[in-house]
Amino acid sequence: MVSSQIPFPDKLDSKKPEEWKRWIEGFECYRIAAGLDAKEEKVQINTLVYAMGRNANEIFKSFQLTEEDQVYETAKQRFETHFVGRTNVIFERARFNKRVQGAQESVIDFIESLFTLAETCQFGTLKEELIRDRIVVGIRNAVLSQKLMQDDTLTLDKAVPSKQSLQSITKSLKEMAKMGKLTAFETKREDRQKIKEKYPKILKIRKIPRDLPEECPAIDATSRKCKNRDHYASECKSKVVLSVDDERQDGNSDVDCYFLGEVEDNESQKKWSVDLSLGKTQMRFKIDTGADVTVIPEGSYLQTGINNLQKSSRQLFGPGQSKLSVKGVIKGNLKTGNTKDSTQEIYVVENLKEPLLGRPAIDALNLVQKVDTIHSDDNRRIEQKVKTMYPICLKVWESSASS
User: How far apart are CA 108 and CA 261, in angstroms?
Assistant: First the structure.
C-alpha cells in the first residue's frame, strides 16, 4: 500500500494547543499523499485520531458525534474548536511581539514563523500590518531593517514579495554591509601599513612626533585614555589612578563639579587604606586626604544592600577633563572597627578602580591627625635653657631676624 510507505507526522502534544495549526497542516499533506482522502469517512477519522497520539481518543469521545456527524471535516472542525478555543490570546500575542530572528535562523524561516504565530493571535484586519511591523523590527540584519523602515509605503507584500527575491535582497544587503565595513576601515589599514613600512618605529613609540608627515593617521588625533594628542588610545602608555579633588568649576554653570586629579600608578608606593563597614558589607577604602568627596565603584555599591541611590546634580571629571559616569549619590553610614561612625554623602561611579575615602569622612572618623607644629618636652627644655644661658645672644639674634 502507498500509505504504509509514508510515515505519520509527529504526535501532537494535546497540552500545547498552539501546535494544532502546524500539526493539522502536516497531517493534511499526509492525508493527500497517502490517498487517505479517498477512503471512507470513518477510516479518515480513526487515522486522524490515531496519528494525533495520546489523549486524542478521549478528546474525540467528548465530542459525542452522531452517526450523521461521523465525517472527517466535521471531526477536524471539532478538534479545531477544541484546541484553538483554548488559546490564550494575550499569551499568543506576547509570543508574537517578542519574536525576533534567531542567531542561526534564516530570514525566510523567521517570516514563516511569524505567519504561524499570527494565526492564533486574532489580529483581524490588522494581521498583515502587524506581521510587517514585526518583520521590520525583528530581523537580525540592521541594514535591511533600516532600509525597510525608511519606506513609508511599505506593505507586507512589498516586504515579502517572494522567497526568491527575499533571498536575493538579503544576500545583496549582506554584501553591502560587508563592503561598508571594509570601506570604513580600508583607508586606515592602508595608511597604517604604508607608515609601518616607511616609519618602522612609529608603532613602538608612545607619542608620535609632530614633525611626521601629514599622512600619519595619528596626527592631531586625541587619545580617549589620557586626552593627549598625536596618538591613539590603543597606543597610549599612561597609567593613572583616580583621586577626587573638590574644585569648583569656573564660569556660569549651575552644576557643581568635582574634578579628579592624576596620581601615578607606582606599585612600590604603599597605599593608605582602612576597612570600614558600609551597609551590609565590609569595604576597604583608600585614604585620600586631598579628596573632598567619598566615592565607591558601582559594583561595591550593589554589595551594600543600600537602595536609596539618588540622582546627583554634581559632576565628576577625571584626568584630562574626561567626564566620569556618576550613577548617583547615597547617604551611607561609615563605621570603623572601634565603633566610630559617620553618615556621609557617597558618590557611586561607574568603572572606578577602588573606593576612595574623602576628607570629610576622614575628619569625622578621626583617621588622620592634623599636626601643624611638632613640639616635644625636650625641645622646650633646651629652648628655655638657651634663653637662660645666653640672653644677650638671643636678643641680638631675634633683633637681626626681625630686621
Answer: 56
Amino acid identity for residue 312 in this structure: S
Distance CA 304, CA 309 (A): 11
For the chain, percent of residues with pLDDT exceeding 70: 62
Q: Are strands 281-287 and 294-297 parallel, antiparallel or unpaired?
A: unpaired
Copy the grid coordinates of residue 21: 495549526
Distances (CA, A) of 214 to 123, 191, 206, 209: 61, 11, 18, 11
Query: How many angstroms separate the CA atoms of 233 and 236, rounded?
Result: 5
What count of other Cβ atoms lies within 10 Å of the Cβ of residue 347? 23
Q: Radius of gyration of the chain from Cα atoms?
A: 39
Q: Are strands 326-335 and 341-349 parallel, antiparallel or unpaired?
A: antiparallel
Q: How far is CA 60 from CA 13, 48, 66, 74, in A?
A: 15, 10, 12, 11
Tell me how far apart the alpha carbons of residues 156 and 129 are, in angstroms, rounded to a whole number. Answer: 7
Q: What is the 3-state secondary structure (H, E, C) of 111-139?
A: HHHHHHHHCCCCCHHHHHHHHHHHHHHHC
Which cell is 115 given? 505567519
CA angle 55, 58, 60 (to 5 degrees): 110
Q: Which residue has the higher pLDDT, 351 or 346?
A: 346
The residues with which 274 forms a beta bridge, in sequence order, are: 285
CB burial of residue 296 (10 Å; 0-12, 13-18, 19+):
buried
Q: Cβ contacts of residue 333 below 8 Å, gap of 6+?
A: 278, 341, 342, 343
pLDDT of 240 strictly over 50: no
* 394: exposed, middle or buried (Cβ count in 10 Å: 0-12, 13-18, 19+): middle
